[in-house]
Design a protein that fits this description.
2 domains; Rossmann fold; Lipocalin
């Protein structure tokens, strides 16, 4: 009987191991379509786990793969997916050369109407193993609400309360602590919300109610004329505060937290013109600009009461800490505090693999500076002094985005989780919110 049991165990073990694929890992990719002048990469990675393909929807987060597509034992793969609002049909093969694995693929990218297509070359490059996943399961009581926000493309449409109505999903927890305050976690420009869920878990023990705003989600699930901007993120925040106050009681204070593009929305929550326009913003007493995308200069009038923390990794080349230093030096905002920690972009999030230089990761701030006039209009300047885009004169729609992509976007940054820096940062967050410690005593304090 024992021998029979041992045979079953060996068989099951062999069966389990045979499902692991030698092609498993994380892959960056680029694709070039005929008739276009540049290759495309949106910051996401394709993941192969047990031979099954998925996309992490990072960066611009635009790949949707609904079915299970598996790599064959000899490396062949066919899959169908959707990036933005265009459908792709892809086939190709992975090649193993020593420790390196790469893939060459041919793709058909179909038009919006689906009646024509372009041929595209796609190249996959393995950059690491399958990312270790932290469980996002949560048995706490959660209340989901729907807010009515707007697609405010830029700061002037936000100031004028303009834009098409947009419904947005919000998750609320710890509502029994609403009288103490509310911590609002806003997204960056991606619908991949793992970072934001991770952030909420870190601050959920502070006896505040929490809200996670899923504002990127609807904008990427259907046709939309613009990307998810910091102005939209801030309008989503305003709508969230209003809805929560109406349904569950007005919080004593609101703390706002967001990364990258979301961090720019956090910064703008202190603009006095917007706080005068939207009473909900007056409740915001504190902001955490994680991976802070700081403008170099802002002449907008800033509220004297809000405490603003610009958080960066010391080695981050995507949202570098020196832009926040430029902002500090160019403004009279005594309540803007600089915090830096060891690590690069996304040093704070255990949802990322350990830090590694990513040649394909997009960045813009090292190439171009963001600057704001007193009337909230934006000027984007090439750092070499060659070009600029004045939003007040030229506008903010498609032409601006095309100009920005052409003249400001570049590649390459250190990116990923850095345990030592992350521990210091989250300890400082607790020191600020719970222990009310002076900023100069914080581990990340930078003069």
């Amino acid at each position: 009987m024992k021998s029979f049991f041992l045979i079953i165990v060996i068989f099951l073990t062999h069966f389990t191991l045979s499902h692991a694929s030698k092609y498993d890992g994380a892959y960056t990719y680029t694709h070039f379509c005929k008739g276009e002048d540049s290759s495309k990469y949106d910051g996401s990675q394709f993941i192969i786990d047990d031979g099954i393909l998925s996309n992490n929807r990072g960066g611009a987060g635009r790949w949707i793969i609904k079915k299970k597509f598996k790599v064959s034992d000899d490396g062949k793969l066919k899959f169908r997916g959707k990036r933005k609002d265009k459908k792709y049909s892809v086939k190709g093969k992975f090649i193993i050369e020593g420790d390196k694995i790469s893939g060459k693929f041919l793709a058909k990218r179909y038009s919006k109407s689906g009646d024509s297509y372009k041929k595209c070359d796609m190249e996959f490059k393995r950059v690491g193993g399958v990312p270790e996943k932290i469980s996002l399961e949560d048995d706490r009581e959660m209340t989901e609400i729907t807010i009515l926000s707007k697609n405010t493309n830029d700061d002037i449409t936000l100031l004028n309360d303009e834009g098409k109505d947009q419904k947005v999903r919000v998750e609320l927890r710890n509502l029994e602590s609403i009288s103490n305050g509310l911590i609002v976690v806003v997204p960056s420009s991606t619908p991949n919300m793992e970072d934001e869920i991770y952030y909420e878990k870190q601050v959920s023990k502070f006896k505040y109610a929490t809200a996670i705003v899923y504002g990127a989600e609807p904008r990427y699930q259907k046709k939309f004329t613009g990307s998810y901007t910091s102005s939209m993120i801030l309008y989503d925040t305003i709508s969230t505060i209003n809805k929560v106050s109406e349904k569950f009681g007005k919080p004593k204070e609101v703390i706002i937290m967001g990364s990258s593009t979301g961090s720019l929305a956090v910064f703008k929550s202190g603009w006095q013109d917007l706080r005068d326009k939207y009473p909900a913003l007056k409740l915001i007493s504190m902001g955490f600009m994680i991976n802070a995308a700081c403008p170099d200069q802002s002449d907008a009038k800033y509220n004297n009461n809000i405490q603003m923390y610009a958080i960066n990794g010391k080695q981050d080349e995507s949202t570098p800490p020196w832009t926040c230093k430029n902002l500090k030096n160019s403004s009279n905002n005594r309540n803007l505090h600089l915090l830096t920690y060891s690590g690069g972009h996304h040093f704070e999030s255990a949802m990322y693999p350990p830090s590694k230089y990513d040649m394909n990761s997009m960045h813009a701030l090292p190439t171009c500076s963001l600057n704001y006039k007193a009337n909230l209009h934006q000027i984007i300047k090439r750092r070499d002094g060659s070009l600029e885009w004045d939003g007040e004169k030229k506008g903010y729609k498609k032409k601006q985005k095309k100009w920005f992509n052409k003249h400001c976007i570049d590649k390459g940054t250190l990116q990923g989780y850095e345990e030592y820096g992350a521990k210091n940062f989250w300890a400082d967050v607790k020191s600020i919110i719970v222990d009310k410690k002076d900023v100069k005593s914080l581990k990340g304090y930078t003069n």
